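Task 17 of the worksheet. Students: predict the tertiary structure of the chain below and write it out as structure tokens. Keep your answer in the requested format; marks are given for formatting as well as content.
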Amino acid sequence: MHRLGYPYASAAMLTTFPAASPAAHGGTTVQPFWIDLLEPSEAEIARVNATWQLRVPSRAQLQEIESSSRLRSEADVLYLSMPLCLRPPTDDNTPVPIGFVLSSAIIVTVRFASLHSFDHVRARMERNGDIKGSAAVFAALIEEMVDVGADTLEMLAADLMAISREAFNRSAKRGRRSTRVNRLLRETLITLGSNGETLSQIRESLTGLQRIVDFTGETARDWLPKDIQVRLKTVRKDLSSLTDFEAHLSSKVQFLLDAVLGFINTEQNDMFKVLTIVSVVGVPPTLIASMYGMNFHNMPELGWRWGYAYGLTLIALSTLVPIVWFKRRGWW
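Model answer:
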């Protein structure tokens, strides 16, 4: 492995695999089969294009959404691109464009973020040296990205299961802590929205991978090694199963969103019901108190010795009777 122009820790980097070894006349004795461009500059792209007679796309070109721009073949060289969001959930999951320039002799990868799948493939090459050739690098990268996607979906599935269990158990045991329950339900709603957005981005990445694998398997059939074709067929099956699983998780997110919204509406309805009952219960005593608070001279009870106790008793009864009635009806 040889790094050109930048140290490994730099944001921009051009890396070749295997290492370019100096020769006696200033050339190289070993030609690289993988060139990895991490946030490349225009000078680095121009250098690769001039040295290996390629047309490495810029970031703007990688972000084009037309199918003809993302998947094309020119003189046995494949130009592939896709939006990628197959990274651990702890990272920034904003999709970043990634591109492949693939031929039988060399593969150039263009990316604008550090990706664990690339790090794993590089580590395997440095440790075992079992990945040789552009097609093998391409297959290994695709397999690693599929593995990362599967791991991410598994973590999201576990997260959704925990949210489901917590939401339904919380609803069954909400007790009288209505304010706290509503706050927790709103937090759950935000979490579900975030998970739904992540699933949407993963769906876009999986769709991009499927198109790349299908296009490569069909277009490069003549020069792709048989073992690589078999691996790509396996990847195609894995992507199909992951797409189905992602659709299942998206449906579950929608179900949980509807359920949580229903819980919030139920909590709000219970609150309004309590306020309505309190207001109804308060009407009779208010009416009695206001009637006996007029103090007209011709009121029979005005000079009555037990009038005050009589009025309090009426107020208490007018309060208790509606409460008992609401209880018997099951409204409270």
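Marker's comment: Strands lie at 2-4, 13-17, 34-38, 71-74, 77-84, 96-102, 107-111. The longest strand covers residues 77-84.
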